[in-house]
Amino acid sequence: xxxxxQQSGSSHAPHRLKRGVLTVPNAxxxxxxxxxxxxxxxxxxxxxxxxxxxxxxLSFLIAFISCAFVGNTVVQFSRRLPSAGSFYTFNSKGLGSxxxxxxxxxxxxxxxxxxxxxxxxxxxxxxxYVAATFNTDIPWWLFSIGAMAIVFGLSVRSIKASVNxxxxxxxxxxxxxxxxxxxxxALAGDxxxxxxFYPSSAPTGFSGVGLGVVFGILSxxxxxxxxxxxxxxxxxxxxxxxxxxxxxxxxxxxxxLLMYSLTAGYGLNDPAKLDAFLKDANPFVTLGAEMTPWxxxxxxxxxxxxxxxxxxxxxxxxxxVMFSMGRDQVLPASLGRVHTNWHSPFxxxxxxxxxxxxxxxxxxxxxxPGATGAxxxxxxxxxxxxxxxxxxxxxxxxRYFWRDAERTILKHLILPLLGxxxxxxxLYAVSNPNASYPYNLVPWIVLIWLAIGTALFLYYRAKxxxxxxAIGTFVAExxxxx
Length: 482
Description:
Helix 4 runs antiparallel to helix 5 and helix 13 crosses helix 14. With 482 residues, the chain is mainly α. The chain contains 18 helices and no strands.
């Protein structure tokens, strides 16, 4: 199905998102919000620090470089194939429709399952804040339902409004944490040392740094979200690569700077202080209480805002993948239609909202709504699925450009190979069947999901081969105005 059949003016195209309504800053906001930089440093710094110790900044720097390899793949594909399906479209073109099906199947659940964890985490964080600040006990799920209602309204009514909310919240929360980071570095004294970028600063050397890299890479999941805006962004073949590069670069620098400020301010090069850090449930709040007590309330509110902006971004990303798969009739065709007036993927939004509430309430009651409960469990499932898609996309890039006249050895061979190599260890680490319960269930859940997908693929191939042939063929056309 070609994009050249685009209807313009007032005519309504039921399978088309509204073209040209977003700018580069809008797309950057979606990717940056999906990474949830403040939430990532608050949750992943303590987890990574347990292995990396004082070498935490080095682990996040290596993770930044590793994800930049995948970023190159997204940029190269987005210049050729801007589409709401992103990796679904990319891998279909690079590896064939079968690989495209599995990509969509994994990418869809990878992002979809992140939303219930964010749904519960928002309620848990806001519940704890209200209880501590106002001595009022309000059930966490009421806050979660309220956030879901706002996310639903924004996503249905306007993608532009959604990304503008993301952008506003991002600016506020990042500025607050940068003030904390800069103050911590200025007051750190002997804590400031280049040794934090040496592997020897980790308790177990290279292996400790490597485990820290796993949590660094988890923090970058979502950088590709802007690629799903390929059909709604002005001049997508230029804008989407700029957005991916800008979001990944800005958040990567933010991560390394905040990890350095935490290491220096907390004094992790001192074994006694490292031990205290490992026992601290929220090191950034502790750092704020010591370095910037006047900023403590904004730090806590920024963390809550960060969860909400990530929730909104992940929701909008997921429904666009569902919309693309519905448009290709891999999922029910009704999911591939847009709202008559607002041009939003309305039916996909409704389905994802129901999924989020049902799974979020279920896992929140089962495991608890906090960071170590539903959020951690669903996030690990999503990470395994998405990292597999990232690896496939690097291989797809090599194949897609193999005989292309514009192929370069660096961009289309060396960098994607490095991307595959960099992601293999994190994939192993987060899918280890020997992990503690319930994380030992993660690889089995992903395998069961793949088995269901295989049954569906074989059914389509036997009964509706035209659906398989049409996978990933919807690509946005470039704007005609210059």
